[in-house]
# Entry
Amino acid sequence: MNVHHLELFYYVAKHGGLSAAARGIPYGIQQPAISSQVLRLEQSLGRKLFERKPFRLTSEGQTLYEFIAPFFGALEITASKIRGNTERVLRIGAPEAIHGDYLPRILKDLGKKIPGFRFNLLSAGLDEIEAALDAGEIDLGVAPLVHKKSGGTECLVLLDLHMGLLVPKASPLRKVEELWKSNLLSFPLITTGGRVPRLFLEALKSRNIDWLPSLELESQLLVSSYVREGFGVGLILVEAQGKVPAGTRLFRLADFPGVPYGILWRGALSALQEAFIEEAQKAVRDLGVGF
# Structure
């Protein structure tokens, strides 16, 4: 097998397609060249490695990718070590819930692979994260990609989360349909700030329902605390198998839009940024449900 062909296949599998690979490969190569050389790899193996539209690795392609990914994924970091590159600081922006529940594990695993690794954290929503990326104040953002602005900001979706409504455990409500049929003014809506509540309100409007937030808090932890104390109904994002906060009951809004969560950056990815992205993807796979 040709090693260069393997490298091109690695980028195709990593980025999820030929055109995405052409944008993600750190040196200049056009999509037709990638396609023809990966085709030669498939011919040499006598097996199809991926479906083109929609993109999907075959079982043989998945086996090959899992075998070569550790080598090609660590190549730039190894090169940096050999060159004596001492830059090991990563600046990350994310909502408070991500900082508390998920980043510690990712950063700890990254520190095991990269000696001297350090990080700076910014607690922020998508608006602030995009502004910080534009200003060069952070290297990566992790956020819900709702109404993401286009201009030059790249993103990688990790998974979709679902909207849900929390009610106090003692609430007489047993189904979310009961809520829609009741006088919503008697149920104050509690949300966080940012763009997710906007998506929720748009979904309500399409159902001819008007229900404006009465209380806007900084985090989902605060939302659940105020719901538990009986101040209203709280809008949160939940994993498919996510735990329900103590003292509350959860109505999962399965027929409402999902909320894509992902990583944002600007410009070409550094080896350190790529290493973080790979650890985040691994965390999603290991958890089974992700952030």
User: Anything to note?
Assistant: The first strand starts at residue 50 and ends at 51. Residues 76 and 271 are 5 Å apart (CA to CA). The two ends are 38 Å apart (CA to CA). The chain has three domains: 3-73, 86-158+260-287, 160-259.
